[in-house]
Inverse folding.
């Protein structure tokens, strides 16, 4: 059967999802740098079916019944953690939520020993967020249990990257030739990095716009070496936003003001806040996105954040569907 042949899934529920997983080659989900266009399309196709489930009065199916999904977050999170836990529960899995601050890690146990304990308890999939870049890769190296990266340091946030592109495509259709402007703290943004990898197969032009101090040193050379030729850098927001189809400000972490990376918060707001005046330079049908949480009045003003162009709340909703699709593929799909 081809990837596009469908079957009723789950039994008796009437939702149509791909019958073939031939394009899927992942045991773990660590970033989007090793995702093909076919694999992303498969995730999106399954997410479309999950959207149907989320529209029902009873948002629960037995697909992952008997599976146990654990979340282990070493950083605060509202959207991502709740989204993954709801996704697991809607698919019928049992869930275990671990607070790292109250776990044995706080008593000196290593990350790998804590994760091995979960593996010994027969957990099927571990969703991990960690402040250190590379922590999920270390986990995947030492464990047989499947690992999903829910954000590691400044490195990657693959499920956010997928839900961002999914939201763009649902709203705009064909993304070929579209212009995406990502604004703000590029240096510390794992969301920006995963979006760079995720958009490379969609013929999207990506502009990274930030003060020079918030652009990683050597970024231009890095993008060229990685084949990310669709990415360019612009320091002037008025220039960057001209003719944009998608505008995505990033949260400015207030602690960056104390570190001297920006001259002042007032100056940053004047030069880089997305407001109605700046948005008028984008295309008339341009959409507004934000990975959250927002600093209203800093990187984005209230009218733009909650205006008719804003898809920020839709991103949150789509996040559950995308994470349901990923759990289906990782916990329930077959790995070749």
């Amino acid at each position: 059967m081809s990837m596009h042949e469908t079957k009723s899934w789950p039994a008796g529920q009437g939702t149509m999802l791909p019958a073939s997983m031939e394009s899927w080659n992942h045991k773990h989900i660590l970033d989007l740098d090793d995702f093909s266009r076919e694999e992303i399309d498969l995730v999106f196709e399954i997410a479309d079916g999950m959207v149907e489930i989320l529209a029902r009065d009873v948002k629960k199916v037995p697909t992952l019944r008997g599976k146990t999904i654990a979340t282990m977050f070493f950083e605060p999170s509202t959207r991502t953690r709740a989204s993954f836990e709801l996704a697991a529960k809607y698919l019928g899995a049992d869930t275990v939520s671990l607070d790292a601050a109250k776990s044995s890690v706080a008593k000196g146990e290593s990350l790998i020993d804590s994760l091995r304990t979960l593996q010994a308890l027969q957990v099927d999939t571990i969703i991990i967020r960690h402040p250190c870049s590379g922590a999920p890769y270390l986990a995947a190296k030492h464990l047989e249990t499947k690992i999903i990266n829910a954000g590691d340091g400044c490195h990657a946030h693959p499920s956010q990257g997928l839900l961002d592109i999914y939201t763009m495509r649902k709203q705009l259709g064909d993304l070929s030739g579209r212009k995406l402007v990502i604004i703000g703290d590029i240096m510390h943004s794992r969301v920006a990095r995963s979006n760079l990898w995720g958009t490379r197969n969609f013929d999207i032009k990506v502009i990274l716009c930030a003060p020079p101090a918030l652009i990683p040193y050597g970024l231009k050379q890095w993008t060229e070496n990685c084949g990310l030729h669709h990415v360019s850098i612009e320091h002037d927001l008025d220039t960057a936003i001209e003719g944009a189809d998608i505008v995505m400000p990033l949260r400015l972490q207030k602690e960056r003001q104390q570190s001297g990376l920006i001259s002042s918060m007032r100056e940053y707001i004047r030069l880089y806040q997305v407001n109605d005046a700046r948005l008028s330079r984008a295309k008339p049908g341009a959409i507004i996105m934000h990975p959250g949480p927002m600093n209203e009045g800093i990187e984005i003003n209230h009218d733009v954040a909650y205006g008719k162009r804003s898809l920020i709340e839709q991103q949150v909703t789509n996040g559950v569907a995308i994470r349901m699709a990923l759990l289906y593929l990782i916990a329930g799909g077959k790995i070749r």
About this structure: The chain has two domains: 6-153+317-332, 160-305. Residues 312-332 form the longest helix (21 residues). The radius of gyration is 20 Å.
